[in-house]
Design goal:
Elements: H1 15-26, H2 29-41, H3 45-73, H4 77-87, H5 95-127, H6 136-147, H7 150-168, H8 172-198, H9 204-212, H10 216-237, H11 244-249, H12 258-286, H13 296-308, H14 312-346, H15 350-371, E1 379-381, E2 384-386, H16 389-417, H17 420-427, H18 431-456
Antiparallel strand pairs: 1-2
């Protein structure tokens, strides 16, 4: 059983190392880029309120399930699902859930690296004062010039993949843990500095109220849209369904409480998203910009603000450095499941497995790079027009299909197939807490994820 099973890849040195690593996996561009612009488009506080409810109902219970499965199996997601399914008396074909998670994470890191490359490029643009005095048209053109130049994108993509491979190849304690012990505190410190500056702006209070005061009138008018956006982001923000949390759980000590760890991770993830909004929206309002700018909020709207504000070079550099750290910790977790599977099943060293995985992700990322220029082609999915070809196809395949299906399967497997004895043995909680979790994971979470999935593919 799990008490006698150990991971060949190592173990976190402490509970806090796991929490930092899992929080680093969850905290990425989604928190500091996607969350603020989604909140801006969906009514600020109204979006935040529904987001927190969805984290409580779906996010934390599914995260607990994914961690307990990982800790019980102590191997890559593929082998873990096969072993536990056989132990519970079911077909070993449940390994395909692990395969889907590993593939999803691998596909995501291939394009995530390209987007992170944009962030790296903007660190240097900010540091060299490229935003100073730039009007909106010039700033927008700067971003357009970047994504239309495949050679520059390839260079930044290459650098980011090498950064990720360098960490993962060193193993659990010397690589993953050492990186997150530095990157996560640094990320939090940089974010607090940005919030501190935002407090000095003229419209800080307006930015805070925009995020904390729900506009119930707006919620009434478009509740369905805000709810689906909030529930979808709550699920994806926590890195669920892609094997990252499962593999990190496999390195977790039996003495660590899964419940308290999941609550802390979800709380930290949400706090960082809120702090990012506190740092961003006061700048947006102070400099007369539009909060509902979509993805352009980070690469077009904020650089305009940095170009106008006192100390813009310093704070612009700080902000994009913060984004880089967030992207780095997420990319590390996305590539880890594929690496562990190669080590376990390919009979090769971790260094070679990481090199092979990084190389294939780098090659696949070239298709994403070309999707923004030479290979761009329009198409429509679920009634929404897309323009960036292969990038959009991979994004839709992973975020809209594979991750919701993975989360749904995890909920069904842990809630309906795994025995009470197995799940109770891993969770080690009081009866009332266990009964509550079991009810949510069997009924509420599957319904919630199903609604997200049907919305993502355009049925709802």
């Amino acid at each position: 059983m799990s008490a006698k099973r150990t991971s060949i890849h190592g173990q976190w040195s402490s509970r806090w190392a796991f929490i930092l690593a899992a929080t680093g996996s969850a905290v990425g561009l989604g928190n500091i880029w996607r969350f603020p612009y989604m909140a801006g488009e969906s009514g600020g506080g109204a979006f935040l309120l529904l987001y927190v409810v969805c984290v409580l109902i779906m996010g934390i219970p599914i995260m607990m399930a994914e961690i307990l499965i990982g800790r019980r199996g102590r191997q890559s997601p593929v082998n873990t699902m096969r072993i536990i399914a056989e132990e519970e008396g079911y077909t070993r074909q449940w390994k395909w859930l692990g395969i889907m998670g590993v593939v999803a994470g691998f596909l995501i890191v291939s394009y995530y690296s390209v987007i992170a490359g944009w962030v790296l490029a903007y660190v240097f643009r900010a540091a060299t004062g490229s935003f100073e005095g730039g009007d909106p048209e010039a700033i927008a053109q700067m971003f357009s010039d970047l994504i239309s130049d495949p050679e520059r994108l390839l260079a930044w993509h290459t650098i980011f993949i090498m950064m990720t491979v360098a960490v993962v190849s060193r193993g659990v304690k010397s690589g993953l843990e050492m990186a997150v012990r530095f990157l996560m505190p640094a990320l939090f410190f940089l974010l607090l500095v940005m919030v501190g500056y935002a407090m000095s702006t003229e419209r800080f209070a307006e930015g805070i109220m925009f995020m904390l005061r729900p506009d119930f009138t707006a919620m009434k008018e478009n509740f369905r849209e805000v709810f689906l956006n909030a529930s979808g982001h709550a699920f994806f923000s926590l890195s669920l369904g892609m094997g990252a949390i499962m593999i990190y759980g496999s390195y977790l000590s039996d003495r660590t409480s899964i419940t308290s760890a999941a609550v802390l991770i979800a709380s930290a993830d949400t706090l960082i998203a809120i702090l990012a909004s506190f740092a961003i929206f006061p700048l947006v309002f102070t400099y007369g910009l539009e909060p509902a700018q979509g993805p352009g909020l980070i690469f077009v709207t904020l650089p305009i603000a940095f170009g106008q504000m006192p100390g813009g070079v310093f704070f612009g550099t700080l902000f994009f450095l913060l984004l880089t750290f967030a992207a780095w910790t997420s990319a590390i977790s996305l590539i880890e499941p594929a690496v562990t599977w190669l080590v376990e099943n390919g009979g090769i060293s971790r260094i070679k497995a990481t090199a092979y995985t990084g190389l294939v992700a780098w090659i696949l990322g070239i298709a994403t790079i070309l999707s923004f220029n030479h290979w761009a082609f329009p198409f429509t999915f679920a009634g929404v027009s897309k323009e960036n070809g292969i990038f959009d196809i991979i994004d839709i395949l992973t975020a809209n299909i594979m991750l919701p299906l993975g989360g749904l399967a995890i909920a069904i497997f842990s809630g309906w197939l795994m025995s009470r004895a197995s799940t109770m043995d891993e969770l080690k909680v009081k009866e009332n807490i266990y009964v509550s979790w079991r009810f949510v994971i069997k009924f509420l979470a599957p319904v919630g994820v199903t609604i997200i999935f049907l919305n993502q593919i355009g049925i709802l």
